[in-house]
Design brief:
The structure holds two protein chains of two kinds.
Chain A: E1 2-13, E2 16-27, E3 31-35, H1 42-50, E4 57-62, E5 65-66, E6 74-77, H2 81-84, H3 91-101, H4 106-119, H5 135-147, E7 153-157, H6 165-182, E8 185-189, H7 193-199, E9 202-206, E10 213-218, H8 229-232, H9 234-248
Parallel strand pairs in A: 3-8, 3-9, 6-7, 7-8
Antiparallel strand pairs in A: 1-2, 1-4, 4-5, 9-10
Helix pairs in contact in A: 3-4, 3-5, 4-5, 7-9
Chain B: H1 2-23, H2 35-47, H3 49-82, H4 84-97, H5 106-113, H6 117-141, H7 145-153, H8 158-196, H9 202-210, H10 216-244, H11 249-253
Helix pairs in contact in B: 2-10, 3-4, 3-6, 3-8, 3-9, 5-6, 6-8, 7-8, 8-9, 8-10, 9-10
Classes of the chains: A alpha/beta, B mainly alpha.
Chain lengths: 257, 255
């Protein structure tokens, strides 16, 4: 079942197209990674999908309905947790915020926030402030806040690019775990080829700006992934090479999947 | 504790230098009485009921002026900070009004509101508006786009983004503005009392003591009280800010 449809999307930034003629669909429950050269318009694409910017042309549909403002059933995790978590609110109040703004009652808010925090492996930090936590923990708070509304679609813009490598592995596994447990649909932007293959059920490869789709590669790896085993497997290495090749030769028509 | 001890040490050193300078005849005692004399006079002043009423009148006028200034400057700053068109349209007026010294407006204000406490309150509020206004506008300009996007994806509309995100983000900057304005307002209140005359106030005490008999010990004692009031206000606001805005790097740095 198709959850998200992006058709002929074009977005101009300062007079030039950042994204052009982009068409793809994401099925419910899929985890789709988008990768592409830096500055190719990946973030612009996510912002358009989220309804944060209005595309110059083309359309985004969620559940078949055109996206004109930020849909209620959508959440977003930004790369920079330091700029995305509100420093004047405690961890719990940060996580409760989307519920409070949707007029969810106090008791239910507290219960769901606690559940979301437990879901990302954070307990006992409710009353701390984000800036009192490590970077990895802060990004967990941001993920908990994104999941607390039980979104149909979770958008993530380079969510693990600002944490150290060890934490990054932990958060990648955490994401796959919660994504599968809740059957959340995820669209994740990353510049890291390995990460796109490790996390994704599919990898969309974008060209240099103006970004269009150069490949849509299914990831035939077992659903249960392991940082050491999976990354060392022949299938993973082959896919990684494939994504890298598509990235390097964006203009080659033969490369379009 | 160490900080307080050091502050006190500096204060004592200053008083000692002052005492020595007067006692050795470096500074004429008729114009600048030594601190021992001034402190004795201060004790006498404080013992008088009338003087406390003067101090109270000054502090009250200061508080009303600062409250007025904040009530005007914060909403105005929110409008100017979030509506670039309004900001551009009012820039010339603001830049023209801001550098006008408040005391130059005394004749105008006395004509408009009379020479009662309203005059010093109006002038101090006028002077205190600017730091708060500029800090509020600046803070909104510093509002992170990621933070605004976060608010929007969390379900906030324009109005809610302003009240629940822009306002708390701006609060430590606004508070710094209020602290700057607190000092300015006190200076203007006392100056107006001195220059325009007032029924009550520290400035009036100084004016009366300096005219006629020229009681410099009283002048200096009253000046000392004005300084102490200013110090207490600043210290209180600094502590309040550190408590309210512990989350803010602005609080840690600038406050």
């Amino acid at each position: 079942m198709t959850l998200l449809q992006v058709r002929h999307l074009r977005h101009d930034y300062r007079g030039a197209a950042a994204v052009d003629e982009l068409t793809f669909a994401v099925g419910a429950g899929e985890l789709v990674c988008i990768t592409g050269p830096s500055g190719c318009g990946k973030s612009t694409l996510l912002r358009a999908v989220a309804g944060l910017v209005e595309p110059t042309a083309g359309e985004v549909r969620l559940h078949g309905d055109p996206v004109r403002a930020v849909p209620d059933e959508l959440s977003f995790v930004f790369q920079d947790y330091g700029r995305s978590l509100f420093p004047w609110l405690s961890v719990r109040r940060n996580v409760e915020l989307p519920l409070r703004w949707r007029s969810v009652g106090r008791a239910e808010r507290a219960e769901r926030a606690a559940e979301a925090l437990a879901g990302v492996g954070l307990a006992g930090v409710d009353d701390r402030y984000p800036w009192q936590l490590s970077g990895g923990m802060q990004q967990r708070v941001a993920i908990a806040r994104a999941l607390v509304t039980r979104p149909a679609l979770l958008l993530m813009d380079e969510p693990f690019a600002s944490v150290d490598a060890q934490t990054r592995f932990e958060l990648e596994d955490l994401l796959r775990r919660v994504q599968r447990a809740r059957a959340t649909t995820v669209l994740l932007v990353t510049h890291d080829i390995d990460e796109s293959v490790y996390l994704g059920d599919r990898v969309l490869v974008l060209s240099r700006s103006p970004a269009h789709l150069v490949a849509d590669l299914p990831v035939d790896l077992p659903a249960e992934r392991d940082q050491i085993g999976t990354r060392g497997s022949a299938a993973f290495v082959a896919l990684r090479g494939e994504v890298a090749r598509r990235l390097r030769a964006p203009g080659d028509p033969a490369a379009v999947g | 504790m160490a900080r307080i001890a050091r502050n006190l040490g500096g204060l004592l050193g200053f008083a000692l230098l002052w005492e020595v300078a007067v006692r050795t005849g470096l500074v004429p005692e008729r114009f600048v009485p030594p601190p021992t004399v001034v402190l004795a006079e201060l004790g006498e002043l404080v013992a008088q009921r009338g003087f406390l009423a003067d101090v109270l009148a000054t502090v009250l006028a200061w508080a009303i002026a600062l409250g007025l200034a904040a009530a005007i400057a914060v909403p105005a700053g929110l409008v100017l900070g979030s509506a670039p068109a309004v900001r551009v349209a009012t820039r010339a007026v603001v830049e023209f009004l801001r550098p006008i010294p408040s005391v130059a407006l005394i004749p105008l204000v006395v004509l408009l509101v009379g020479s009662g406490p309203e005059a010093k309150i109006a002038l101090a509020a006028y002077a205190a508006v600017w730091p708060i206004l500029f800090n509020t506008v600046y803070a909104l300009g510093e509002l992170d786009t990621v933070m605004v996007d976060t608010a929007r994806v969390c379900g906030a509309g324009r109005a809610r983004t302003l009240t629940s995100v822009a306002l708390p983000h701006a609060a430590p900057f606004v508070f710094t503005g209020i602290r700057m304005s607190a000092a300015v307002a006190l200076i203007v209140v006392v100056s107006t009392e001195f220059l325009a005359g007032a029924a009550r106030g520290i400035g009036r005490v100084i004016l009366e003591a300096s005219s006629g008999a020229a009681r410099m010990d009283v002048v200096l004692a009253a000046t000392l009280v004005a300084g102490l009031v200013g110090f207490a206000i600043n210290e209180g606001l600094e502590r309040l800010g550190a408590r309210l805005f512990a989350w803010s790097p602005v609080a840690a740095g600038a406050l």
